[in-house]
Design a protein that fits this description.
The chain is of the alpha+beta class. The chain contains 5 helices and 4 strands. The longest helix is centred in the middle third of the chain and has 24 residues. The chain binds zinc ion.
């Protein structure tokens, strides 16, 4: 991969791309909404401002970009060939923050499910898993999707 954008600038670009209301995350929320789930988006009062919060169920879904959050074994979790040390430090810091947020959420009693961005490419399989995690709604109680 050739890359002529310097790491800081690229970091800003990719942060914007991967920040709130990314396409796949919005698509996932729409699907969950159609299945009858109601949620709060990007709640700043919880550790790490979790992406999708289901207050009445005590559950949280975090949508993680594979590159930034290091989805191990995933082909999108690449390491840029230039300034490798910079990226490795960045990734370590992201991972530490993720782990700390996860721990804090669990300590507050939230059940947390992580959705990797690449899993949004198989929405049916993903939704089956999320319905199992979230529990039924009137629309999903028979297990039909
Ligand atoms: Zn992935």
């Amino acid at each position: 991969m050739t890359d002529h954008v310097d790491p800081i600038r690229r970091s800003a670009i990719m942060a914007a791309v991967n920040s709130k209301d990314t396409g796949p995350e919005v698509a996932l929320r729409r699907m969950l909404h159609r299945l009858g789930y109601r949620y709060v988006v990007h709640n700043p009062h919880l550790p790490g401002t979790p992406d999708i919060v289901f207050p009445s169920r005590g559950k949280v879904i975090l949508v993680h970009g594979c590159f930034w959050h290091r989805h191990y074994g995933c082909r999108y979790a690449t390491v840029p060939k230039t300034r490798t040390a910079f990226w490795e430090a960045k990734f370590r810091s992201n991972e530490a923050r993720d782990a700390s947020n996860l721990k804090a959420l669990r300590k507050l009693g939230w059940q947390v499910q992580i959705v990797w961005q690449c899993q949004l490419k198989s929405p049916e399989r993903l939704l089956r898993r999320l319905v199992r995690f979230l529990g039924p709604t009137r629309r999903t109680k028979n297990g039909d999707l």
